Structure formats: C-alpha cells, structure tokens
Amino acid sequence: MNARTVSINTDIGEGFGVWGVGDEAPLMDQVTAANIACGFHAGDPDTLRSTCEMASARGVSVGAQVSYRDLVGFGRRFIDVPTPTLVNDILYQIGALQAFARIAGTEVSYVKAHGALYNTAARHHGQAHAIVEAIGLLDPELPVLCQYGTVLWNTALDAGLSPHAEVFIDRSYTDDGLLVPRSHPDALVLDPSAAAKRAVQMFATGSVVSVGDQTVAVVPEDAATIAMCIHSDAPGAVGIARRTRSLLEQNGVALVPIGDRRHD
C-alpha cells in the first residue's frame, strides 16, 4: 500500500426536535470525522451541541455539513439561491457549529456541502463559488470535502483552498465520476463486505467501477489523504463503517481525523 492516509467521515446529527435519529454513538465510534448538520436541512441546537460533544470525546474531527435552507426536503432539493445569499447562509451555518464545537473543546476543522447543494456545486459555477467564498472569508485554512475534478474542486484550487478528495463507500457512481441519483435502483451499496472492498480498491487505485462498468478516477494521483463517506441514514451504516474500518486497517491504511483543532 502507498503512504496515503484515510479519513472515514459520516453525515451525522441529522435529527430535528422530536424527530431524533436514535443512538449515533456506535457509528461515531467507527469514524474519524463527523459531518454535523448545521440546522438548515437538519440539526437543532440541542443536537448540534450533543453531537459535537460526542465527537470531541472520541477525538473525531468536526466538519460543518452545510446545505440549502430546506428542512422539509432534507436538503435534497435544488434551490436556486442567489450567490450572495448562499454565501451568507453558509457562513451562518458554519458559525453556529463553531460555537457548539468550541464549547465541546474542539473546533470546526473542515466544511462539506450536503445533499443537493453538494451535487449542484459539482457542476454549478455560481454555487461552487458561494461555498468557496464563504470558506475564504471565514477561514481559508479549512479544507473543503468534494469530489475530484468537479467544478467545486477546481474552484477551490483556483482560490487557494485545500480540497480533499471525497469518495463514497455506500453510493454508486456514474461514468463521469459523479454520484448516481438516489432514484436509480443501484444507487446504494449496502452490503458491508462489498462496500469495504470498494473502499480498499478506491484507496489503492484511486478509481471505482461505475454502474456503466467503466473504471473512473475519483482520487488524484498526488492526493495525500482520501475522505471516505458513509451516510448515517443508510441501512446498516454501522455495519458498513465497522467492516470498512477493519478491512482498511488490515491492509495497513492509516485512519486519521481531518485536521486536529481540539483544545483544552
């Protein structure tokens, strides 16, 4: 194996009020980075605080999972937000999570878009620029998790930010290296063994086999680290995470947080 390191991240803290998500501790035990919902697609103040505390106690890095203002659609609907407004929406969400992270003895150490905003920014210049502008204004040292070669990836590089190549263990890919829509019958990869083997393959080769049976590059050759995502709402997410972590470690892969901004 090569000298790359891996962070295993998960979208987490996605309850809201009485619509909780149950005990997320078993999943948090398996990951090294937590993409915490910041209130726009999910995540109320109580959940933000408790999830930050859970991450901090385990040495798991905290990431701001920013989205459209879309609680009804769980952030999975495209919204044509003007770029200046989207910049402010993203700043607002990161700022809220920063407050709870600091109380928990840690810091926000990266940013990742959620759902429709993530997929849109892969192709949409205006919305990619909004994400990049917000991070640049707040803290240009914050990495942004995104897919390699996308509009967001290139926009972040052009602005001097640090994009981290993110791959998806539990999702299928199109022939152009993007995620298959959730409406596709083969959109999800839910078998823990199959998902774990994909993770090892993506680490070793930087590529994945698409639903069209094409080998697609998803990691740049010079990538020092890879961010591997598991969705907390995927059926069997804990089993997928546990099996993936185990197989990566068996293959000598170093698993690390994304940055380390904890404080005493």
Task: Supply the key terms.
264 residues; TIM Barrel; 7-stranded parallel β-barrel; two-stranded antiparallel ribbon; 8 helices; 10 strands; 36% helix; 19% strand; Glyco_hydro/deAcase_b/a-brl; UPF0271 protein
Outline:
By secondary structure, this protein is α/β, with parallel strands linked by helices. 36% of the residues lie in helices and 19% in strands.
SSE inventory with pairings:
Elements: E1 5-12, H1 25-28, E2 33-37, H2 45-58, E3 61-66, H3 83-103, E4 108-113, H4 115-121, H5 125-138, E5 144-146, H6 151-158, E6 163-168, H7 192-205, E7 207-209, E8 215-217, E9 225-231, H8 237-250, E10 254-255
Parallel strand pairs: 1-2, 1-9, 1-10, 2-3, 3-4, 4-5, 5-6, 6-9
Antiparallel strand pairs: 7-8
Helix pairs in contact: 2-3, 3-5, 5-6, 7-8
Describe the structure.
- The chain is of the alpha/beta class.
- It has a single domain (5-255), classed as Alpha-Beta Barrel (TIM Barrel), CATH 3.20.20.370.
- The chain contains 8 helices and 10 strands.
- The strands form 2 sheets. It has a 7-stranded parallel beta barrel with strand order 1-2-3-4-5-6-9, surrounded by 7 helices. A two-stranded antiparallel sheet has the order 7-8.
- Helix 2 (45-58) packs across helix 3 (83-103), helix 3 (83-103) packs across helix 5 and helix 7 (192-205) packs across helix 8.
- The longest helix is centred in the middle third of the chain and has 21 residues, at 83-103.
- The model has no long low-confidence stretch (mean pLDDT 94).
